[in-house]
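Researcher: Structure prediction, please.
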Amino acid sequence: MTIRRRALIVRSEALLLSLLFAAPLYAKITITFDYTYDKNGFFTTWAAAKPMLTLAAQSLTDRLRDNLSAITPNGPDSGAAYAFDPGGGSQLAVHENLNVPANTIIVNAGAYVLGGTSVGLGGPGVYAVNAGSQAFRDAAAARGQAGALSNPARDFGPWGGSIAFNTTTGYSFRNNSLGIDFYSVALHELIHVLGFGTAPSFNARVAGGVFTGPAAGSVALSSDLSHWALGTTGLAGTQPQTAIMTPNYGGRLTSLDWAALSDIGWDLARPGDANADGRVDFNDLVALAQSYNVNDGQRRWSQGDFNFDGNVDFNDLVLLAQGYNTTLPSQPIAFDSGTFRVDLARAFATVPEPGSLGVMCMVTVFGIAWVGRVR
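Model: Predicted structure follows.
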């Protein structure tokens, strides 16, 4: 009996280890920052800016999953990555033969006097190929996203882009209550880099001043067609909140903003999948448990905040429980008459992949969201 019990224990432990360390079904996206063009020393002067920018990126990549191919210049495969200069704006940020690892997005970060009431600026860049194989050209244009070269575009695969902050703005870095919240501005501009208001797959869904997608529904845009209309709300927690992609500063990352990213072509982890590996399992429950009942307003998806209110509580546990022990494709957060809805029947698996930036005029290619207060 002792031998049998031992064998059972060994088998049980092996099963538990296999569950804990099973290979992810999907690749997570990583955003890295390049401060080469921070010519005005903004991120040197403000030591808290870099970690806060990293936190904003993590708040997005915690949930983003996709399969972006690498861009690997080699021999005849050559080119350069272009974006707007985040340290001056009037010139281009150029990276010759930039090597972009798989599932990685590189963002130039800097600051200069933006003028007016603008506190931030952001947008994706393009990778211009000088010469090379078709495979290299496709990777540079679309990062391996199916349908990226189609017309109309239904997905987006950027190498990266640029974000800039206003050097004359008094920012708060969450260590005081004064000033403009740097984290919120950074989050807004990074979403522009991901294609909101800037990607071909976003523009393909715009008609008559309205953005229409299977996850977001039909939502009015501002006059620049790069933001939600003023006053647009989504859900953060159980209450409507001003969406972060409205042009005025002060919004929250809501269900509607996530839905738009899904419609642009990004693959999103579904509620309950804290580690974005395609499963809702014990690992996700552990992540939630470690932050459970922490109501500091700063929790992230990877810590169990599945309804975007910054806290981890019973509402998040319910969302995890609804999908526990299941493996499903990613899923958009439906935005239906202002109601937060988890609809497993609409698991997001068939929406075509994003369009390529293609060959465009270098003056307008960067898709910079020239906006009012937050750009």
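Model: The CA atoms of residues 38 and 332 lie 36 Å apart.
Researcher: Thanks, that helps.
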